[in-house]
Amino acid sequence: MVSEQSEKTLAGQRHRELVAVRSREQSRSAREIAPLPPIKNPQRRISARKDLQYFCEQYFPKKFKLAWSTYHLDVIKRLQEILVQGGGKLALAMPRGSGKTTLVETAVLWAILFGHCRYIVIIGANKSEALKIIEHIKDDIINTKTLLDDFPESIYPFRKLNGSALLARGQIYLGELTGILWKPDSVKFAKIPGSLSSGATLISVGINGAIRGKAIKTPDGEIQRPDMIVLDDPQTDDVARSPDQVTKLSKKIEGTIGGLVGPAEELAMLMCCTVIAENDLADQYLNRNLKPQWRGLRFKMIETMPTRMNMWEEYAELRKEDAVKATMFYRNNREAMREGAKVAWEANYTGNEIDALQHGMNIWADDFETFMSEYQNSPVNLAAQDTAVDAKTIRSRLNGMKRGVIPADTYKITAFIDIHDDILYYCVCSFNDDFTGKVIDYGTFPEQVRKEFRKGENGLITMKREFGGKKERYLAMGLEMLIMQLLDCNYQIDDDDNDIDVVKIDKLLVDSGYMPEVIQETLRKIGQPNIIRPSYGVGIGAKKAPMADWMEAGCVGTVQQLGRRLWMGSNIRSKKTLQRQKFFSICFARY
What are the backbone angles phi and psi of residue 532, rounded to the nearest 5°? Predict the structure, then answer.
């Protein structure tokens, strides 16, 4: 016979068991995420599956609100190729502020949602930089409503975590653990039957972190290895300027990182980079001759710089004093200042600017080195300027003549003056009868105290400082004084047997592409048209044949004959001869 105390004990045990069962059921119910919400816009989802551009525009209209540039569309096309096909290597350099990282982050999410990639590793120059990208993607997962609407099997399990990594451990779907992860440096998508993103993994790591051993063993025994690597600006400024560090980093990318893929599998690799210094890591990987296995895409903010750079220099000076006045100057001279310019992204400018060209040239005017490096991906080689040149190289580039002394076989002496707002630059050359030239003198007006300086820097002795007044006045005064100075110069012949001790300049060309009215009026005032003539130069861009090729094409004789006619003061009237005169003026200025 069971005692009353024993009955109470058994009743309490049954109660505790019922409470435990009820608690387990409640816990299981809380961890269960089924059923999933329905897909709200199936057609939008279907349309985005193979169209990254459509995905960007439909799901992230606030991020991609401006019209695309030509290079954006090219990049989207290339990203689709390596993400969908699951292979290939792409190095990408876009202008700063063009949304490069945002586009890549969106492409990574697109690739995972549609099952194009299963395991993506994001590698930054350091751990914190890599974490930024994964944080941006996590933010899109949590806060983008349209993604929840159209991808409930991928997004809804994350929403149920409420931002808690602890809740991920016990999450289940139809009674099975989803295996979802939500950590600062990694995200794993829930295992949902039929989901294209089921079990997909996204992790981040610094370039100097533990990169090896990134293979993951799934509960069913499958070994999951990375199929996509995203290298986001992997080099720092210090690394970029150290050839040894660049070589070391390149070996790591090709070896350790490239070896993350499994046997008989192809790894897709994307390097988002910025050219910091000549021949740095980015510069090498964008060069298809140096890295033929990589497809390098290098884009510029301004594909072709304006022809009338003299006007932009004036604009830059105005901008230093008053940005509003500079904008008015551009508005009044817009057609001339846009001449020859080609901007890659016409929609990229602020409300205080007139167009994208002004936006780019504002950056150019404010910080030339940053403009060339981060916006043009063609950095100024400052390292080369600071590098000592060996004596042999210096000797090979000297003509052996003392300043102001000319060779005995000199046929004519010529000079050229280059016009700028603040300083005039000149060069004097001697030529023999086969058009071989030697520099015998050069300098600036006004003459500078420092031996080395950069145009536009503070502390220079300028014509405005010397003469004052309006630009037209001090430019005319400076030009007149420099011309008279050069014409008065006596150059000594390097020949003891010659009866003539000194000679003067035979021809003087003056750049007349800038402020032509002022230049021509000054030349008329001085007179001597047989000696002093205006000159118009033609820019030789990257797409034009170099002058050495012009010579090979049979122009040497023409230049020599035309040069002699110019030196002798011959009249030139035909259109064809005038064109040759223009060509000769270019050569005249270059030599």
Answer: -105, 125
CA distance 328 to 334: 9
Strands lying side by side in the sheet with 424-431:
437-445, 424-431, 412-418, 507-511, 532-535
Q: Taking 80 as the threshold, does the pLDDT of residue 563 lie above it?
A: no
HSE of 505 in the Cβ direction (CA atoms, 13 Å)? 27
User: What topology is assigned to 400-536 in CATH?
Assistant: Nucleotidyltransferase; domain 5 (3.30.420)
Question: Which residue intervals of 333-398 are DSSP H helices?
Answer: 334-337, 356-366, 368-370, 382-386, 391-396
Q: Rounded to an integer, what distance in angstroms lies between the CA atom of residue 62 and that of residue 190?
A: 28
Q: Which CATH superfamily is domain 47-209+220-298 in?
A: P-loop containing nucleotide triphosphate hydrolases (3.40.50.300)
pLDDT tens per residue, range 127-141? 888 899 999 999 999
Give me the residue label for tokens 């003509």.
399
Distance CA 352, CA 346 (A): 15
Cβ-based neighbours of 297, under 8 Å, separated by 6 or more: 71, 74, 75, 78, 90, 91, 92, 93, 286
Which element (helix H / strand E) includes 216?
Answer: strand 216-217
pLDDT in tens, 9-42: 766 676 566 655 555 554 455 588 989 999 999 9
471-488 vs 516-526: helix crossing angle, rounded to 10 = 40
In the chain, domain spans: 47-209+220-298, 302-383, 400-536, 538-591
94-100-101 Cα angle (round to 5): 140
Least confident range of 387-401, 464-478, 522-536: 387-401
For residue 544, the model assigns a pLDDT of 62
- Predicted TM-score (pTM) of the model is 0.63
DSSP characters for 133-197?
HHHHHHHHHHH-HHHHHH-HHHHHHHHTTTT-TGGGGG-EETTEE---EEETTEEE----TT-TT
Per-residue model confidence (pLDDT) at position 582? 44
**Coil, helix or strand at residue 74:** helix
Arithmetic mean of pLDDT, 550-579: 45
Beta-ladder partners of 535: 511
Tokens of 474: 């001090």
Instruction: Count CB neighbours of 252 within 10 A.
Output: 16
Question: What is the pLDDT averaged over residues 69-80?
Answer: 93
Query: Tens digits of per-residue pLDDT, 281-335?
Result: 999 999 988 899 899 999 999 999 999 988 998 999 899 889 999 999 999 999 9
Q: In this structure, what token pair is assigned to residue 187?
A: 């995200």
**HSE-CB of 160 using CA atoms within 13 angstroms:** 27
H-helix or E-strand containing 311? helix 309-321
